[in-house]
Amino acid sequence: MPSLRPKPALFNPFFRLTTSGRLRRTGAGGAMRAMDAAQVFDHESGASEEPDQRARLKIAIVGFGNFGQFLARTFAAQGHAIIGHSRSDHSAAARSLGAAFFRDPHDLCEQHPDVVVLCTSILSTEAVLRSLPLQRLRRSTLFVDVLSVKEFPKNLLLQFLPPDFDILCTHPMFGPESGKHGWSGLPFVYDKVRIGDSEDRTNRCRCFLDIFAREGCRVVEMSCTEHDENAAEIQFLTHTVGRLLAKLDLKPTPINTKGYETLLELVENTCSDSFDLYNGLFMYNNNSTELLERLELAFNSLRKELFGRLHVNLRKQLFQSPNGGSSHGAEEN
Ligand code: NAP
To answer: Which keywords accompany this UniProt record (predicted)?
Structure first.
């Protein structure tokens, strides 16, 4: 059965890559070829053309590493036009995804994307944001971040972006490992930090969020503050336990139990992410330090409980005479 998904934008009959690398919509003839045909979200010709939930966006992914490429695959599969930029040259990977890649951030911004998705490591976000020539973007550009912490990028984007830009802070709470078989049922959190009132701006934001809804994600609107409070437990704890277990160098055995297999999977899931990501979860979430302290207290309390019981048992054995009486008493006689 043929796939119902639209083709990636660069192979889409409604787009072509011009000699300057710009993505342009081709003749209007194709636009109505199918009932399902999406409308391109084209600001260049003025307002967006019939922006609806199926509008096609030109999405720039800044930070085209592990997670950036993972997102690009699905964005492209839904028919959006993807352009990428990163510190390293990922042009071959971009090509294989049907995306265009620009080494120079000026070239990227001159493509006038509808949406810029910040997908850099948490630690490098500020430097990357500073390196973008924002003046080359359209005044109405939607900035989205997908960082695993939320208060930090929210404050950064509010501080650095011109007031005309829209800001949507998001966190797809899954990755290349946990989302390798699809995104259905996986949580996606967002906070509309600053979205203009006009119809094209609200539609553009809705269109971006719709990517995740269409994949079946559990889409949750939540403030960045609330996200970080929850994420310290959900995410930082999970990654910490995974990385702690990795230090034990656990190996599969012929008698693995289900529980043990879960631990091995946790190690694999968490350690396949970069240490930068884990470090970012600690450094840029205020709640992580407290969580680490609680974890240490919990471990010490558990150990104390175990050793306390061991101590009681040992004492019993030490002070019990072979005939069941108190050895202490026997000595007195
Ligand atoms: P990451 O190690 O957090 O980030 C890698 C990306 O950051 C690469 O594109 C890399 O550029 C760029 N980068 C790192 N240091 C840089 C620097 N000094 N200057 C410029 N760029 C730099 O790994 P990731 O898994 O790809 O995550 C990317 C973002 O997505 C993070 O903010 C993370 O919190 C978020 N996220 C990840 C997951 C996940 O499961 N992996 C899930 C949800 C959200 P190069 O490509 O040029 O090396």
So the answer is: Oxidoreductase
| Per-residue pLDDT reduced to its tens digit, 203-227 | 999 999 999 999 999 999 999 999 9
Mean pLDDT by 10 residues, the chain (333 residues): 36 33 35 32 43 77 98 97 98 97 98 98 97 96 98 98 97 94 97 97 97 98 96 93 97 97 95 95 93 96 95 87 57 41
Residues 217 and 235 in one domain: no
**51 Cβ below 6 A of ligand 1:** no
Q: Give the pTM.
A: 0.81
126 lines ligand 1 (CB under 6 A): no
Query: Does residue 172 line the site of ligand 1, with CB under 6 A?
Result: yes
What is the tens place of the pLDDT at every residue in 242-260?
A: 999 999 999 999 999 999 9
Residues 140 and 251 in one domain: no
Ligand 1 centre distance from Cα of residue 83 (Å)? 16
Q: Which two tokens stand for residue 328?
A: 């202490």
Contact 277 CB / ligand 1 (< 6 Å): yes
Q: Please indicate, yes or no, whether residues 166 and 296 belong to a single structural domain of this protein.
A: no
Number of domains in the chain: 2
Q: Is the CB of 122 under 6 A from ligand 1?
A: yes
The boundaries of the domain holding residue 166 are 58-222
Q: Final residue of a domain: which of 188, 222, 256?
A: 222
CA distances from 6 to 97, 132, 216 (A): 14, 31, 16
CB of 48 closer than 6 A to ligand 1?
A: no
In a domain, 24, yes or no: no
Contact by Cβ (8 Å): 236, 122: no
277, 215: one domain: no
DSSP string computed for 237-284: HHHHHHHHHHTTT----TT--HHHHHHHHHHHHHHTS-HHHHHHHHHT
